[in-house]
Amino acid sequence: MSDWPLWEVFVRSKGGLSHRHVGSVHAPDAELALAHARDTYTRRQEGVSLWIVKSADIVASDPDQAGELFEPAADKVYRHPTFYDIPDEVKHI
Amino acid sequence: MPSLPPIRPEDEAVAARIRPHGAFDAPDLAPHESARFDYLLRLGDDALILGQRLSEWCGHAPAVEVDLSLANLALDLIGQANLALGEAGDADSLAFHRDVLDFRNCLLVEQPNGDFARTVARQLLYSTWQHLALQRLTGSSDNFLSEFAAKAVKEVAYHRELASEWVVRLGDGTEESARRMADGLDWCWRFVPELFEVDAHLEELIGRGIAPDPRELEAEYRAAIGAVLANGQLQPPPDQRPIIGGRRGHHSEHLGHLLALMQYLPRTYPNATW
């Protein structure tokens, strides 16, 4: 309810893949956050594993620092792995 | 606490007389088939009526996440009803064209939602019983029933778990939540003994290894409920005069109202499709 903390939800869609952030739920504690995440985000067979993290525990970068943090990478195309061919059989990279 | 008067044989005679002729033509079955038919109605009607009750929370639950949780439980149960009633006959016509006297659900599942705590109390008391019964039903000598149980037991394990979590949180929450939780349990408690009743139909199925004997679940059930309540700092309510009869069609006044809503559309517009 209004005083319930927010939890971020991560779903592993199948074995071998990473957990991906899918959204958030409100819940009074971790066990119920897991239940709410299960009922909200995996009801259509979206996943085989769930992680939840208290939103307040996430340390985020400051949007005001976006310039110094991210813009210097813009002109360094040689850091992208685009100079060799990826075999067709490799699905998830 | 309101209490219903017992239903006497003369009441049954009156009910039979006023019943619209042909409202429900139960199939003409040999005795051993009719016990199985009746059992399928019990399984299907419990699930259908509790599913309908839970779906009444849609849009009204305390939080959107709880709304989804309750709707998910309801959908699981309506899926189970579809299977069990589909095995008994035509699921839609059994769900929508039977009158109240022909329903075989237990009285617990038809009780009004009340507040969230009472809904949670009803869910704990029913899902725990259903889970223990389904675990044993997976070993049924009847193929349909063992497969039905194998599918439903996983769903119901979660229902039981979720209801237990909520009982503990409300019981061990604020002064108000603890009071509401205790009231909810107190309201539902008198419908528990019916779950362990055995009549001639059930006796026959138990004898043939088709259905589990609910009397054998009772000690485990009482211990499991006691453990959840203790976890939530709650006392089991004092035992009250049991109210029984749902399995014979002797329902509380609440079921007719539920059916009026649930059956309105297919009865008003027969054969309506999306």
List keywords for this structure.
heterodimer; A: 93 residues; alpha+beta; Ubiquitin-like (UB roll); three-stranded antiparallel sheet; 3 strands; B: 274 residues; mainly alpha; Ferritin; 11 helices; 63% helix
Task: Summarize, please.
The complex is a heterodimer of chains A (93) and B (274). Chain A is of the alpha+beta class.
Strand adjacency order, main sheet of chain A: 2-1-3
* Count of discrete domains of chain B: 1
Strand content of chain B: under 5%
Radius of gyration of chain A: 18 Å
| N- and C-termini, Cα separation of chain B | 43 Å
CATH topology group of chain A: Ubiquitin-like (UB roll)
CATH-level-4 superfamily name of chain B: Ferritin, core subunit, four-helix bundle
CATH class of chain A: Alpha Beta
- Assigned CATH architecture of chain A: Roll
**Strand elements of chain B, count:** 0
Query: Biggest interface and which pair forms it?
Result: A-B, 14 and 13 residues
Strand content of chain A: 15-25%
> What is the arithmetic mean of pLDDT of chain B?
93
What class, by secondary structure content of chain A? Answer: alpha+beta
H and E order of chain A: EEHEH
